[in-house]
Amino acid sequence: xxxxxxxxxxxxxxxxxxxxxxxxxxxxxxxxxxxxxxxxxxxxxxxxxxxxxxxxxxxxxxxxxxxxxxxxxxxxxxxxxxxxxxxxxxxxxxxxxxxxxxxxxxxxxxxxxxxxxxxxxxxxxxxxxxxxxxxxxxxxxxxxxxxxxxxxxxxxxxxxxxxxxxxxxxxxxxxxxxxxxxxxxxxxxxxxxxxxxxxxxxxxxxxxxxxxxxxxxxxxxxxx
Length: 224
Ligand SMILES: Nc1ncnc2c1ncn2[C@@H]1O[C@H](COP(=O)(O)OP(=O)(O)OP(=O)(O)O)[C@@H](O)[C@H]1O
Ligand SMILES: [Mg+2]
Fold this sequence. Notes:
The chain is α/β, with parallel strands linked by helices. The chain has one domain: Rossmann fold (3-Layer(aba) Sandwich). Helices cover about 55% and strands about 10% of the residues. Helix 1 crosses helix 8, helix 4 runs antiparallel to helix 5 and helix 4 packs across helix 7. Magnesium ion binds next to helix 1.
């Protein structure tokens, strides 16, 4: 009997990294590139991606007078993620789309685990439960020194959110966490030096993704 793969036919790419590392900029450019390659592409982000999840994003990023326990923060993120996975990511993958997601599970491990100090095993178990063990095929992890990333964020006129306002040491712990994650899963996670120009990072991303797609002979270009 032919083996039936339960893996959805699409491709799931996530972009990860600290504040101002260039995720959103490169996600946009990558989607343009993949579309030009003939793929049907969906760009989305976390926390967010559905109405409910975007509402949770607002709660998470807005400053509030009430302090937020790290556990509360993690639970809200995971609640949003489950909505996003069920309502957006899995259906798009089932249709054979290339889903490009700005942050996903690695951010939870880096920020709530290595940054906030929550127990990593507990967090991993809860994240597996929330995602139904959905793991990206490929993760592009953008790496810049914390000072560079925060300067970029301050320079682009964005309003400061709860995360931007964390102490520099918090962001350094997050960055170190991303490095540990990349080392643990070198086949899935490509650590990209994002301190060079936008165009140079874009070229690196295109080369990485193209060679990854070739190596995995995956997916077949979607016919539109
Ligand atoms: N390689 C780069 N060189 C210089 N500036 C950059 C580079 N990449 C992005 N930027 C600029 O830095 C700012 C932040 O970039 P972007 O929003 O893409 O980062 P981000 O990782 O999505 O940030 P956040 O974590 O806050 O969502 C933007 O103004 C963007 O134009
Ligand atoms: Mg962004």
